Amino acid sequence: MSTNHIETQIIRSQTERTQFLEHSTPLYLTSSFIFEDAEDMRASFAEEIDRNIYSRFSNPNTSEFVDKVCKMEEAEDGFAFATGMAAVYSTFAALLNAGDHIVSAGSVFGSTHTLFTKYFPKWNITTTYFDVNQPETIEHVIQSNTKILYAESPTNPAVDVIDLELLGQIAKKYNLILIIDNCFATPYLQQPIKFGADLVIHSATKLMDGQGRVLGGVVVGKKELIREIYLYSRNTGPALSPFNAWVLSKSLETLPIRVEKHCENAVKVAQFLESSDQVEVVKYPFLPSHPQYEIAKKQMKLGGNIVAFEIKGGINAGRKFLNAIQLCSLSANLGDTRSIVTHPASTTHSKLSQEERLKVGITDGLVRVSVGLEHVDDVINDLKQALASIG
Ligand SMILES: *Cc1c(COP(=O)(O)O)cnc(C)c1O
Hints:
The chain contains 15 helices and 11 strands. By secondary structure, it is α/β, with parallel strands linked by helices. The chain folds into 2 domains: 6-252, 3-Layer(aba) Sandwich (Aspartate Aminotransferase, domain 2); 256-388, Aspartate Aminotransferase, domain 1, CATH 3.90.1150. The strands form 2 sheets. Strands 1-7-6-5-4-2-3 form a 7-stranded mixed sheet, sandwiched between helices. A 4-stranded antiparallel sheet has the order 8-9-11-10. Helix 7 links the parallel strand 4 and strand 5. 48% of the residues are buried. Pyridoxal-5'-phosphate (PLP) binds at residues 83-85, 88, 109, 152, 156, 181, 183-184, 203, 205-206, 215, 217.
C-alpha cells in the first residue's frame, strides 16, 4: 500500500472496519471505551496494550485523522487538538521549562505572538524574533538557553517565504528543536520534515477542512517529542473532538485536488493584480517578482492560495476597497472554498503601531486575499470592480 501515491494513500487508509463492513469510516462518538476484565484494564493503563481508553487520550476518528497527516508529512507520529492554537500552545508547554528561550520568525500568527509576548514570560520563557527577510541574522540571537527555533512559511499576512533548508541547518548546528507551522502551505505543497524540521504544526481549521466548518489542530514529527506532547495533552485536555476528526479525515481525501485548484485560481488572481494600475506590489510565492521566488520554487510544489497586494492610497484606499467588495467575504478565516478579503492595517493588526506593523511587512495599503474555489473570473471581476470604485 505504501508504494501508492499520497493521494491514494489518504483516500485508502482508514480505521479498521466494524462487523457492518461499512465503506466509509463511521463516527465514534464515545467518550470512553470498555475493558474485558481487570487484567485488560490494568494492562491498558500500563500501556502494555495499545488501545483506546478515553477520548481525551485517543479515539478511532482522531487516530485516523492523525495517521493521514503523518502520511502526508512523512512524520513518525502525531497528536490532534481542538484548535490550531491548542496545538501551538501545548507543543511549547510540553517541551519547554522555565528559563528556556525561543527564537522565532518575527511574523507569526497573531495568537502565537500573544503567547510569546504575554503568557510565556509569566513562566520566564522568553522569545527573540528574527527578521523573516534576513534569516542569516538568526545565529546572532541564539542564546545558550535557546531550545526551539520556530517559523511559519509562507508568512501571514505578508506572504514572505523563509528558507526551510537554512532553518534546518541552523537548528542542527545549534541543537535546537525546529518547529514549523505549515498551515498556509499544507503538507501537499510543502513538507518541512524533509528540510530538517523536528515537528510540524497545522491549524486544520484552514485548508485541511477547507470549507469553513470545524476547528482543529495537529502536531506531527519525531516520535520522542510527540510522546512528550501526548503525555502533556493526555493530562491537560486539549484533544480534538471525534466529530471534528471525522469531518477533517474526510476533508483530507480531497485536500490535494482542492489545493491544486486553489493554487491555479490564486496564480490567476495574482497575475490580474500585477497588471492593475491601482496596485503597487503583489506578493505571491510563485510570481517571479516575489523576493523569495527561488526559495519558494525549491521548497513548495505550488504557490498556495494566499495573495497579498499593496493598494495605492494607503489606509483609506484599503477601507474603501473592502467596502466595495461584493462577492468575496470579509472574514477572519482563510483557506475556505469561498474567497476572503482582509485589510490587516485597519482590522486584525489595527492595535499595533504603524512601526510595529511595518516590521512584519504590513503596510497601510496591504490587502490579503484567500483565493477560494469559485470560478476565478468571478473573483477577479469582484476585485476589479472594487479597485475601480476607489477611483
Ligand atoms: C489560524 C492559524 C492558527 C490558529 O489556528 P486555530 O485553528 O484558529 O486555532 C495558527 N497558525 C496559523 C498560521 C494560522 O493561520
